[in-house]
Amino acid sequence: MSIRLRLTAWYTGILAITLIVFGASIYGIVRYNMYVEVKNRIADQALPTLQSLNYTSLQGLDLAPDLGQRIRLEDAQIFWQITSYVSGLTRISSGMENRSLKFPVPSLETVSKNYKVHFETIQVHGSSFIVLMVPISIPASVNEKAAIIGFLQLAYNTAAEDHIMNQLQRVLLFGSLITIVVASTFGLFLARTSMRPIGKVIQAANQIQTGNDLSVRIDYQGPQDEIGRLIGTVNGMLARAETFYNELDQAYAAQRRFVSDASHELRTPLTTIRGNVDLLKKVWTQEEASGRKLDDKELHQLSVEAVTDIAEEASRMSRLVNDMLSLARADAGQTIEKSPVEMEPLVTDVIRRAQFLPRKADWLQGDLTALEGAIVEGDKDYLQQMLFIFIENAFKYTPKGQVVIDAMRNGGQLGIRIADTGIGMERTEVSHIFDRFYRADESRGVTPGTGLGLSIAKWIVDEHNGSVEVFTRKGEGTTFLIWLPVSFNAVTE
User: Fold this and answer.
1) DSSP 8-state secondary structure symbol assigned to residue 140
2) For residues 154 and 299, what is the distance between their CA atoms, to the nearest angstrom?
3) Phi, psi of 367 (to 5 degrees)
4) Which residues pair with 470 in a beta bridge?
């Protein structure tokens, strides 16, 4: 059963129970008040009727009320019947005579056994009467019990009241049925209208399930009730799913590009190594195409050149594999274990060792006073590796001129600046220089390298909660400004 049918069934059931309880309550209250009013009208005439009777202990009972009381009883539409247990005679009102009515009278033995005044409902000739049953007794002496000499019955024909109650019962019954049918119809309509946005949710989910369009959104113009908030949540989930899918697609594309670039980078040294190995195999087995055998000097020189090429390409492959391993660890979520590191001796040592790197530019040291007392929470080896990457990159793209390193402070940040006067780059390339295997088009195949260094350096800076600013101009050089959070004048072990 669908939700809208269940909701309609629940609404209808609750409404039906409510109408039954309400109708029964109305019917009960009206019936009670109506018949209580009848009983009160009868009871009001009981005492005057008894007082109007003329009886003595010797003469028995005068079986009729006086004229005035009979008129009052007729005006009140009350029938009366008086039975004498002394004479055995029964007197009835004219209304009963005209209708040939007579009420059953209890025997004297029944009345004598603690009989109490009460009302009874009696059916006579198909008519319903509420009858007040009153024993008539005369006072007795002190030591004797009151003597019952007769029986008074005052009755009211409840045909009108019964008709009204039957009409009320039918009105309540049919009215409730009609109300339930109408309410069920409108309830089903409202439930269907209310659940229509859920159908849109299902439709959108089916579109996403059967296709690849994650840009589908549920159009909803209704109030921000539970369904409105649900659709808003679903749209938010779809937006997040689309963002995640796009990021995953970009990551997958980057992974494919990474594998392609890595394959390309590895293929070149492998080709060189394989070519030199094949060459050595030929010359060592004296299998040159010309058939001329090489002398020892030529064989030695050729072997040294081939082995040198193999060693250089093997070293290049080793660096590439190490760089790829570092990036793979970064992708796997590896974190750097940190401890307080004094930056002044670290940078000084890097500057000293950097002068031995292959370079054509001058290596200059600027103002480093900002390093005094600077403590970075990080890893010493990774910080050194990061600085060497930026310095090697500056040397690589500065065929002439100079590379300068200096430091500055800005609040709780330490800035290490590495500036060169090299070839620079276009501003459009800045957003890509930290991508893996990326190198400026002019440098591809001309400047040696794998294109992974700056990616590793950026990962190290990010792991230390730092940032990198890049300033460059084509033909004038590039400046990298590395910002790291530091504390100053800290005490370290």
Assistant:
1) -
2) 149
3) -75, 120
4) 480
Structure tokens at 324: 């790829």
Rounded CA gap, 389 and 372, in Å? 23
Domain residues of the chain, as ranges? 3-165, 335-488
Secondary structure of 464-492 in the HEC alphabet?
CCCEEEEEEECCCEEEEEEEEEEEECCCC
With beta carbons less than 8 A apart as the criterion, state whether 402 and 418 touch.
Answer: no
Distance CA 149, CA 161 (A): 34
The position carrying tokens 């970009």 is 250
DSSP class of residue 397 equals T
Sequential DSSP letters for 355-387: TTSS-SSEEEE---GGGTTEEEEE-HHHHHHHH
Report how far residue 474's alpha carbon sits from residue 479's, in angstroms, rounded to the nearest whole number: 12
Alpha-carbon distance of 315 to 273, in angstroms, equals 11
How many angstroms separate the CA atoms of 75 and 69, rounded?
A: 10
Alpha carbon of 126 to those of 98, 99, 303, 318, 436: distances in Å?
A: 16, 12, 136, 117, 106
The H-or-E segment that residue 420 falls in is strand 413-420
* pLDDT tens for each residue of 389-420: 899 989 988 999 999 999 999 988 999 999 99
CATH number for 3-165 (one of 2.70.180, 1.10.760, 1.10.1740, 3.30.450): it is 3.30.450
Average pLDDT over residues 310-319: 75
Q: Residue 130 — very low, low, confident or very high, per pLDDT cuts 50/70/90?
A: very high
Residues contacting residue 287 through CB under 8 Å, at least 6 positions apart:
281
Q: Provide the terminal-to-terminal Cα distance of the chain, rounded to the nearest Å.
A: 73
Give the separation between CA 202 and CA 195, rounded to whole angstroms: 11
Contacts of 14 (CB under 8 A, 6+ apart): none
CB 422 within 8 A of CB 402: no
Q: What average pLDDT does the segment 483-492 reach?
A: 74
Closest to 460 measured CA to CA, from 484, 429, 437, 476: 484
Q: Highest-confidence range of 46-60, 268-282, 476-490, by mean pLDDT?
A: 476-490
What DSSP string runs through 42-93? HHHHHHHHHHH--EETTTEE--S--HHHHHHHHHTTEEEEEEETTT--EEE-
Quickly tell me which residue has 């990036």 as its tokens: 327
CATH number of 335-488: 3.30.565.10
CA dihedral of 166, 167, 170, 174, whole degrees rounded to 10: -170
**pLDDT above 70 as % of the chain:** 78
